[in-house]
Amino acid sequence: MKKVLLTVFALFIMALSTGCWEAVDISNQAFVTTLAIDKGEGNKKFIVSTEIVKPGMLFEKEADGKAYLMESAEGDSIAEALEHIQTRIPRLLSLSHLRVMLVGEALAKDHFFDAIEFIQKYPEKALRLRLMFIKDTESRAVLAARPAIGRYIAEDLVLMSRLENKSAMMHTNKLIDFIGDMRSRGGQGMGTMLSLEEEGQKIIYKGTAVFDKYKLVGWLDGSETKAANWIVGDGYDTVLLNAGHGIYAYCVEDRNLSIKPVWNEQGALSFTIRLKTDGILVDEQGYDYDMRRPQHIAQVEKIFSEEVAAQIRSAVEKSQKEIGVDYLGLGEYLYRQDPQKFKALDWEKVYPDIPVNVEVNCLITRFGLSP
Amino acid sequence: MEKKTENNSINTAKEISLEDVRLEVQVMEEAPSDDQQYTRGPKERFSGNLNLNLTRLGERFKGAELKLEQFEVGSIAPKKVVLAYLKERANPEIVREIRQRISAIRAVTLLDISFVERNIEDSPLSPFPQAEVCQRPDGAEAALFQGRTVILCEGSPQALLAPATFFDLLDTPEDVYSRWFLAASFFRIARFIMFIFAVSLPGFYIALTSFNTGFIPTHLAFLIAGSREGTPFPVYFEAFLIMGVVEAVRMMMVRLPTQLGATIALFSGLALIGTGIVAKIISIPMVIIATLTMISSFAIANNDLREAVRLLQFFTMLMTSIFGLFGFAIAFIYIAIHMSVLKSFGIAYMSPLAPLEGSGLGHTIVRENTEMMAQDETYKPITVE
Amino acid sequence: MREHVKETIDPKVIASILMVGIVEFEIFTIPRKIVEVAGRDAWLSVLLGGVILFAVVFMLIALAKRFPQRNMFEYAFDVWGKPLGWIIIIGTFLYWAVFLVMALNEFSWINQILFLRNVPVIIPKLLMALGAAALISYGFAVLARFSQLMLFFMIIPFLGVFILTLPNIYWGNFFPVLENGFIPVLEGIIYFMSIFQCMTGIILIFYPFFNRSASLLKPALFGMGVIFVLTMLETVGAIGVLGIENINESAWPGVDTITVIELPGFPVERFELWLTLPWIIGIFATWALTLYFLTYGFTQVFHLTAQRKAIIYMAAVGACFFGYIIPNYSYVIMIRDIFSLSSIVFVFILPALALLICTLMKKGDSRV
Contacts by B4-10 with C-beta closer than 8 Å and gap 24+? Predict the structure, then answer.
């Protein structure tokens, strides 16, 4: 018994004497939930702004109290800027609850990928954090906006990004998918776009940022994003169209997309995009068609198919002619089919002139929510 | 770890028969000295009278071959100790081992059966009890049919069932007697989870809140941090404080097992926690954790095991206060090592899980719908170490 | 002298020993190693490697069957002859010793990143090493029980989590198949095989401990099958979820794969971190097993059975301090590459040669 007590005592003393007390209490940590990165104004590369949640404020009942603190600092690396921010916060900065990263337009057009790589290597991060790009302004302006429902910006942004399957006007992807796309396509890809309205007070989650060679090259607005989402998205989408004497709305529930590179006998390349959708007719304001008659359904299906095909064509055209970047990832399909032929092509040069055939088949399985 | 049995037996066994002890008098109903309440099953309990206890046991074995061996243990005031087993069920190696260990007890006298227990256990140092204390003749009967032995001591209203595995200790009569086996299995698995909670919850809370805050879901982390705002003590100190308070209240209840005691405990507990929270001396999440731990620990039916769990709880708290989650993993591994080393009279303590015996799982991990008395390979080992 | 095991152990136990003993932190890093050489065809490497693996299990059991009452140290001299036998035995000891030092070093390094930043590395190392020494000083029976107990806390979480990744897989990441031909796939197999360094020891040393050794084959195949499925799920998950570009950038693709999954409404948002607990158990079990092989073989070959306990503790503490010899991490990577290659020799080539010699020269205690 004495031996046991002695051993326990010795172990206890050993543990205490080695200075292993590195516990940092949860209430002594400052959690960064959003990291907003902008281009440095002076000779530094970045301006890093952080949204630091004040947990005590989350409980207060005031209607418009912001439960967070915003701090910015400059630095050539994010680590340097964070060090500067730490000097102003009396608690230990922690990135373990970083949920959102924002990048301003000026930086996105320049060297933002250095910042991304820092985050990817940072051990505390979770790769499901979201990356968003801010149109027209600096990303720190978002932190000055008013959260719509939550008490801090990241809360709202994360909730919004989870609506990706419910709204076709936005394009959203996880950081890791974004990086993966960029790396495998030589810096081409699509990112999430945010914009500010009402004098910078309201955050709008709509649109897409388009990248080429690891730099921002253009934006897609809401309807262009909707069109592009027929190819890259996977979720609900509603098509409105004006047929005859009224508006008809078709809500896509299930879709099946196939993209095939086709070589004709002369060796010329073209793409065939086939889309088959299943959905409900949610709105029928006109009286030209009687949905109880199969022929009329077929007619409406045809009109919708043409409308969707037109949208897809416009998305391809935007990508090929206006921006000239394969952000829709058609090259990927060719590469998967035949890597040797893909490598033989100078894809960037060839891409804008490749003909694309679109075949759409919209099916209406049900109509109207009430008989 | 295993006890070396000396060959020089001090107390010799004498075989007795039930006829010797059967009381002619009508067995009178005593007020059962019970520490637990059950909804189903016989209400009969052992009493302090050895002969009466043996008679009660014997009444349940009309015709069956119940072997009784009687020892006189104690040099100054010898007490009778009776070892009972079923000849065709019990493993002779285990019986011989227990017989040897009882006969090797050097004692002045035996105050209670616990003095037998501590003298014949494999490892008195271990936090886990290696014999089961039982008050119910029906429990003893079930143990006999499983092939275990029952040890009774003069003057003690409890019987010792040996060997006992971890799963025997977590077993309750409700599991056996309740009608629907699926419900019984559900509650039994819930009890295992509660056992793990009782050992690890406060330690885990310390590790998560003072070392790896990234493990906590974001919103929960902010809620915890927010409600800890303004409290003076670090998490680990608070944890030790509140768990200490829980122990104090429990001890008070044991000392005052009356209506008055319950009222005082309720009042003092509520007053302490309530004022502590209002004055921001203690934080709310810690109170939740402490209460949850306490509730979980009371899911364990066996009193000795429950005490062990409380101390293990402090062990994990200490390890996590120093080493965080790594300390938690190390504490878990150390406890697991001890559990795989430990044996109860030659039976691996964690059997039938380790070593795995499929036939035994049906009435340890879950309870299957047995029509017959459950019997398995667990208590039929090849040899005794 | 061989350890005398009083209890006879059921052959089924070998499945749990194999599973617990082989799975260690490599389960998180192996996709990167294979993807580095084989690209998106890494799953083919794993598939083909699995076939070879099962063949090796057959081979090891066949070798052990020839000497049913003896372990590999006892018949090493019979098979190889005196001088060659000594060289091989000493080489095997060195191989295990290097593994002990390296694994502990790597463990403490990861531990520093994930858990304890300021604590001197020697303390977590000692805690692990002393626990392992205490476990194996009780002998094989306790080790077997420990492995069965840990099985539930280790393999089931791993399997569950990897299955969770399946719906997140983007199957397009697997095409085109065999872009660079078959050679990289074959190279990938070598890396795949290097994670099985404990397998030979488990089968060839523990064989005489089992009571019905003849029926050892099925449980051994089952155990290896589970590990194979685990590795396959993990590799497929990593390629399908992360894509090969991200795998090459990631330190632990196994962990990163899980950080991507988002379960809507699921309360634990960072549940990948919970895997660190089974991971610590895994590395502990592997380390303890290797320590057992080394000390057990050492005491048996040099007839030091009486001092076995002391030797176990000395080896455990020694392994902690030998880590200080390695100056920085680039040496670690260098040694690990050499180690991976020598794994092939010690785990596969030597037993294969031994079996060949036995068959040709008709050596062995029992005719098979």
Answer: B5/B97, B5/B100, B5/B101, B5/B104, B6/B104, B7/B100, B8/B104, B9/B100, B9/B103, B9/B104, B10/B103, B10/B104, B10/B105, B10/B106
